[in-house]
Amino acid sequence: MKLIAACMAVLMTTTGIAASEPQKNPEETKLYQIIDREWEWMLQEFPNAATYVGDPRYDDLWPDSSPEAIERRDAHARALVDELEGLDRERLSPEGRLNYDLMLRNARLTVEAQKFPGELVPLNQMGGVHQDVADLLQMQPRRTVEEYEKVIQRLRGVATLVDQDIALMRRGLEAGVTPPRITLRDVEKRIAELVVDDPAQSSIYEVAFDQMPSSISSAEQKRLREEAAKVIRESVIPAYGRLQQFFAKEYYPGTREAIGLSSVPDGRSWYDYQVRVMTTTDMTSDEIHQLGLSEVKRIRGEMESIRKQTGFEGTLQEFFDFLRTDPRFFYTDKEEFLAGYRNIAKRIDPELTRLFGRLPRLTYGVLPVPEYSERTQTTAYYQPGSPEAHRPGYFYANTWDLASRPKWEMEALTVHEAVPGHHLQISLAQELENVPSFRRHGGYTAFVEGWGLYSESLGPELGLYKDPYSKFGQLTYEMWRAIRLVVDTGMHAKGWTRDQAIQYFKENAGKSEHDIRVEIDRYIVWPGQALAYKIGELKIKELRALATRELGGKFDIRGFHDTVLGAGPLPLSILETRVREWIASEKGR
C-alpha cells in the first residue's frame, strides 16, 4: 500500500484524537483535553495530513520544513511526553488506559526518532516534492470556486516547499545522510518532466484543472485556469527548475554509494529503531533474518507442489522463467488489464459477508497509477478514501510495461490492496465510532500490512485461486514477503549488496526482473518497512489458530475478523490481548 509518506508518518505518531466526551473522572477529563488539543495542533502543523483525513480547513497550506519549525515540533513532542507521564494512568477507565497507552507509546517513539536525522532525506524515488504535490492535489476537494481558490493558494506555496527541501538535502549531503545513488537514477527525469514550457502540460495542472465540474460557470473556470497557469509558470516551474539543477549538479553526485542504512552515521541504531517501529515487536534483525530463511524454505515446498500439479516438467527456476515470459500470462491492452482487476474485485464483493459481520460503507474503485510516477512505482498500491471528504478509496494498478504484470498475480494483489485487504480494513477503522482519530486515521505498519498479507490467504474462502497458476501467484506473493525478511535485514544489517539481494529474490520468486529491481530499491530507501508484512501476517494467523483450537465448534470466523478489525490498527501485542479476551468471552457464552 502506498500512502503519502509525510502524512502517514505524522498520523502514525501523532497523539491527537477527535473531540471526545470528557469523563467525570478529573484525570480522564485532563487526558481528553490533551488529546483534543493535540489533534488540532497536528492538523495545523501538517496541513497535508488534514487534507488526507478529509479536514478542509488547511487545504491552502503546506507544512513548514524550516529548521526553526522542525525544532519547534521536536520540543513540542518532548513536552507532550512529560505531560502524559504526569497523568495517573491507574485513575483512567479501561478505554482511557488503552488510548493513553497508545498515545504515550507513539509520543515516545516520536521523541526517540529525534536521534536520527530523517528530515534530511525528504526525497527519493518513491516520493518527494516532485511527486507528492500532484498526489495531494489529486485527493484535495475540487468542487467549488472556493475549493479551487485553495488549490491555487497551495500552488503558491510550492516554491517555498521546494526551497526548504533543497536546504534539508544540502544539510544531508554535509552529514552523509542521503539515499543511495543507485536508487535515484530515474529521479532527475521525473523532476525534469515538471519543468515545462506550457503550464497546461504540467502534471500538476492536469491533475487539478483539466477537468472541472460543470457546476462552476465557464467564466469562472477560465479565470481559475488562467490564474493557476500564471502561478505554475511564474513560481512552480522555476522552483522545479532549481530543484532539477540542484539535483543534477550537487545532490546526485554527492549521494552515498553504499546501500545499507548501517553505512550512515549511527545507521545501525537507526535501523534497529526502524525494525521496532515497523514490526511493533522486540525482534532483532538476526531473528527476523532466520525467520525469513525458514519461511522461504517452507513456501518453496508448496511451490514445488503447484509446479507438479500444472504438469510442468522443468525445475522450479525454469518454471519461474516460464511464468515471467509466456505470452498467455500477460495482457497487451491497458484497458483490458484494468478491467481484469475490476472484474476480480466485483467477484470478491458478494463473498465478504461469509467472512465478516461488519463491512465498510465507503466505496472503492480501480485506477491506473498516474503516468508521472508509474516507472518508479511498485506493482500496485491503495490510496485510502475519506468519509468526511466523501472521497472513495482507490486501488491503483501499474499499467506501465504490461509484459511485467502477469495475470496470475492479479487475484492475490486485488485481495491485498482492495477487499478484504486494505480498503476493507482502513475504511472500517475510519468509520469506527467513539474511537480516537489517531486510531481511526493512523496505523501500525505490522497491523495494516500484516492484515493485507493475511487477506491473501483468504482467497480460497472467497472462491479464488481455482486456477493453479493463480494459486502459484498467491504463493509468489507470500514468498515475496518472506524474501523481504531476508533481503531487508541482509542489506541493512548484514552488509549484503544490491546485486546479492536481487539474485536471492530471483532465485526464490517468479516476479519479473523489473518488479524485483523496483522492490529491492524500495527496501533500500524504506529500511524496515518491508519487514512488517510477514511479521503481522504470522501473528494474525497464529491468533486465528489459537482461537480455532480454544473454541472448537464455537469458533466463528466472522466474530474473529470483527474482533481483529474492531478497534482499528493496534500494535501486535495489544492485538493479541484483545483476541485472547474475545476467546475468553466466547468460552463463557
Your description of this structure?
- It is a single chain.
- The chain has helices spanning 5-13, 26-45, 47-53, 67-85, 94-112, 129-139, 145-156, 158-175, 187-192, 203-209, 218-254, 267-279, 285-310, 316-325, 334-348, 410-417, 422-430, 437-441, 445-456, 468-493, 498-508, 513-525, 532-551, 557-565, 572-587, and strands at residues 364-368, 380-383, 393-397.
- The chain has 589 residues and is mainly alpha-helical.
- Strands 1-3-2 form a three-stranded mixed sheet, covered by helices on one side.
- The model is unreliable at 2-6 and 12-23 (pLDDT under 50).
* Integer average pLDDT: 94
Query: What kind of sheet is the major sheet?
Result: 3 strands, mixed
Q: Largest beta sheet: what is the strand line-up?
A: 1-3-2
**Gap between N and C termini, in Å?**
38 Å
> How helical, in percent, are the residues?
55-70%
Shape summary: globular
Report low-confidence residues grouped into runs of 5 or more: 2-6, 12-23
Q: What is the succession of H and E elements? A: HHHHHHHHHHHHHHHEEEHHHHHHHHHH
Number of helices: 25
The value of Rg in angstroms is 24 Å
Query: Could you tell me the number of beta strands?
Result: 3
| Structural class assignment | mainly alpha
What percent strand?
Answer: under 5%
